[in-house]
Write a structure and sequence with these properties.
single chain; alpha/beta; Rossmann fold; Helicase, Ruva Protein, domain 3; Alpha-Beta Plaits; 3 domains; five-stranded parallel β-sheet; four-stranded antiparallel β-sheet; about 40% helix; about 15% strand
Length: about 425
């Protein structure tokens, strides 16, 4: 493999969705914020449509990872399931090991389970992938599940992920009631040329690459045309292009390497809608300003409400502001901790900033829900020096992921997991430029 040859810690262009390689460009970040907000409202059915290989599964997994701790997720990935099998799968995901026999009995069992979750202050969201392959009668059955409710709240929310054929199905008048229940409809557009370049850089950086851009603009332009801007096709082309360059023992990627990759993958430029970047759907308001506002609302909605305090008292008796954290000293402490900690120890990177003073502001904005201890890492982030805010200390990925799911979503940040072993490769001496 070409990993050592290009200075990589792991393969950067695997097609298996891995949220550590989440790319927020191409409106993905705005979509994630809108989805989190809609789930926070707990109403209606949500639909996400995208071409094959556009990143629907990655978005789904990132969404599940970002849900607040009070939301339980259920995953249905097999479009051929019958209604009875759907009920059994949902019950199994909710911890019911022995589903009843018969549809009505299982529906009653599900209703009882959902009511118990609701009384405990929890909500349930069902994520359905490959929804375009579900028969119309079964889609209608999913809609009927959203009728399970109390006097004030729905007990179950559904998010459909599917290919463009899903829209054609929903146009069928036989399931018009389902279509009327859709409160948010998103279209996962292909990446534009500039976004493909940023996507390539981002994935290489996560994999440990620290050199100059490997893919020159001319190759990015050709790759965009060949891939149609679809992330899975980009990954296949990029991986095979690097392999072709490695076979030729050169670090300079050329058009010949890309063409060899395209030929090996039997990939030709896409035609029709898949090759064009669709216009923004109605949810993406002008300038995306409202989308960012929704992300902020989602963050606010999941925070505990402060107790009412008279304005006069807040002004006249406010305590002096605490001194700004000394990020330089914290970074030195982190260096010492990195040297001694086990390589597979996990932390959550909750935010980062290019300047130390901005990192201090970020530190001061953390709330009591942030996992402890909080550390500062001064190192390379996507090839540039940055001050990274780290939270928690976990013995394995599972424990870290459980903590990550409890974090509130902040529109200006995108928390993800890091390991001590990888952080050691990017750390910079404190005070270096």
């Amino acid at each position: 493999m070409y990993l050592d040859y290009f200075g990589l810690k792991e393969a950067p262009f695997r097609i298996t969705p891995n949220t550590e390689y989440w790319y927020a460009g191409g409106q993905r970040g705005e979509m994630l914020a809108a989805l989190l907000y809609a789930i926070g409202q707990g109403e209606g059915i949500i639909k996400v449509v995208g071409e094959v290989g556009s990143g629907k599964t990655m978005l789904c997994r990132k969404l599940v990872a970002q849900l607040p701790g009070s939301v339980d997720s259920v995953y249905l990935g097999n479009p051929s399931l019958s209604p009875d099998d759907m009920l059994a799968a949902i019950l199994a995901d909710l911890g019911v090991e022995a589903p009843e026999s018969g549809r009505q009995a299982r529906l009653a069992q599900l209703n009882t389970t959902l009511l118990a979750r609701h009384q405990a202050g929890r909500r349930v969201v069902v994520f359905v992938e490959e929804a375009q392959g579900i028969a119309l009668d079964n889609l209608e059955f999913l809609r009927l599940l959203t009728n399970l409710e109390t006097a004030t709240d729905k007990l179950l929310q559904i998010v459909l992920f599917g290919q463009p054929e899903l829209d054609a199905q929903l146009a069928d008048p036989r399931i018009r009631q389902l279509k009327d229940r859709i409160t948010l409809s998103l279209n996962l557009s292909p990446l534009a040329e500039t976004e493909v370049a940023a996507y390539l850089r981002a994935r290489l950086a996560v994999a440990g690459y620290r050199g100059p851009d490997l893919f020159p603009p001319s190759l990015v332009a050709r790759m965009t045309r060949l891939s149609g801007g679809l992330s899975r096709r980009i990954n296949v082309l990029a991986d095979k292009t690097l392999l072709a360059a490695y076979a030729g023992q050169t670090h300079t990627l050329t058009a010949a390497h890309l063409e060899a990759a395209a030929n090996d993958a039997d990939m030709q430029p896409l035609s029709g809608q898949a090759a064009a970047r669709p216009a923004l759907r109605r949810w993406a308001w002008p300038g995306l300003g409202l989308t960012a506002a929704l992300g902020l609302l989602a963050f606010v909605a999941w925070q505990p409400l402060p107790s009412a305090t008279p304005v006069k008292a807040a002004v006249s008796h406010a305590p002096p502001a605490p001194p700004a954290p000394d990020v330089t000293d914290l970074a030195r402490q982190t260096q010492r901790w990195l040297a001694a900690a086990a390589p597979d120890t996990h932390v959550i990177q909750v935010a980062s900033a290019k300047e130390a003073d901005k990192a201090a502001v970020l530190l001061g904005s953390l709330n009591a829900a942030t996992p402890q201890p909080v550390r500062v890492l001064h190192g390379l982030s996507q090839g540039s020096p940055a001050w990274m805010i780290l939270a928690g200390e976990f013995p394995d990925r599972e424990a870290a992921m459980a903590a990550l799911r409890t974090l509130p979503t902040m529109p200006a940040s995108d928390p993800f997991l890091r390991t001590v072993g990888k952080m050691r490769t990017v750390v910079l001496p404190t005070g270096s430029p």
